[in-house]
Write a structure and sequence with these properties.
Length: 194
């Protein structure tokens, strides 16, 4: 009987499953929310980590984002996917965190960070090189590439998440790719190496 239920669950599209879980969570079903968390927390964590660049901050905001999602589950209207909705909550909280850091931090607080510490290919794998290159991009370009490549969101979903027109998303992604190519060139990384 359990195997038949598992097979049926696998046949349900992810978006329908997510919406069902969120609806159940909104009605107070702790197990449904726990399952929703298990399905999405890694993706949200890595989005936050790439956005904030700090493990502890990403973990803290992750907890805040899922707490907010739990509280707001009943008000979810289904205008976007559940994933996009949760990423939107996380993004807003991360932006608030970044703004408060800017107000309280100085570059002098980070004297231990070398100005141009970028791992070379001989000391790092492709992922680290790309991550280092992404860190040199503007926050808007980094975010656009993150949502397209790591989260595989469609331009329309990104537009909804960021609150900008789809055409602006396309343009931003195009410019972000160009900027990334430029950074990789500055880092003397050839296309073949990536």
């Amino acid at each position: 009987m359990r195997a038949a239920a598992d097979q049926t669950a696998c046949q349900v599209p992810a978006s329908d499953r997510d919406q069902t879980l969120l609806r159940r969570a909104g009605a107070g079903d702790d197990e449904a929310f726990r399952e929703l968390y298990e399905l999405h927390h890694r993706r949200v964590y890595f989005f936050l980590f790439r956005m904030l660049g700090e493990k502890t901050a990403a973990e803290d905001i992750l907890v805040e984002a899922f707490t907010a999602a739990w509280r707001q589950a009943r008000s979810f209207q289904g205008r976007s996917s559940v994933t996009t909705w949760i990423l939107g909550i996380a993004r807003n909280l991360a932006n608030n965190d970044l703004r408060s850091r800017r107000d309280h931090e100085s570059i002098d607080d980070h004297h231990h960070l070398p100005a141009d510490a970028v791992p070379g290919l001989e000391h790092s794998d492709r992922a680290r090189v790309i991550a280092a290159a992404l860190q040199r991009l503007s926050a808007k370009h980094r975010e656009a590439l993150d949502l397209v490549f790591y989260h595989e969101l469609k331009y329309g979903e990104i537009a909804e998440l960021l609150g900008i027109p789809t055409g602006t998303v396309k343009t931003r992604v195009l410019h972000a790719k160009e900027a990334l190519r430029g950074v990789l060139t500055q880092m003397e990384v050839s296309r073949d190496a990536i």
